[in-house]
Amino acid sequence: MKYPVLEMDRVPHGFKSSELSYIVSFDFDDVNNFANDDLHKKYLSYIQREVHGLVENMHVMYRPEVVKINGQYFVLLKDNMDMYKITETVKKILGEIDRYTEGKVDVKAHVLMAMLLQKGKDVSFFKTKKVGDPILESAEYMNSVISEKKDFDSSELSYVTPWEEFVMLDEKRNQEAKEK
After folding, report:
1. What would the mean pLDDT of 158-174 be, rounded to a whole number?
2. Residue 128: C-alpha distances to residues 2, 96, 112, 121, 132 (Å)
3. 152 near 95, Cβ under 8 Å?
């Protein structure tokens, strides 16, 4: 079986070049429907970074690392992970984003196994036949979409920063900046 390839300048500590790893990534589409002013754009930029950090912080047992390659964030997870827990976390995050953006932003998550490659290093001899297409061009990436959203339950703690809270924090930051 061939695996999509995630090529990077430097493989993070704890991972190796030519190693197979689970990858979690979020794609934000139709952002112009929601991001019609600077504050909305700042919020979307904020949650794009935040959701990858949430997966990283909530699944510490799988030794996650967030990497940014060509403007796209990826969470790398060790292969001892529980796929059910990851997908449930992702579904809850998708549901919260849908609620906070009033359904105006289409967010898809991808969870798949990929091969990590460091630029300038040769592929391990035993894994040369497993090298597939670059991750964003691969069929596996396109077929690994999780779009199912878990309904938001207001009695549970929120993972994603709500829009109202972000507005308050932004006003506070602006006020503090004016005072300095």
Report:
1. 90
2. 9, 41, 19, 12, 9
3. yes
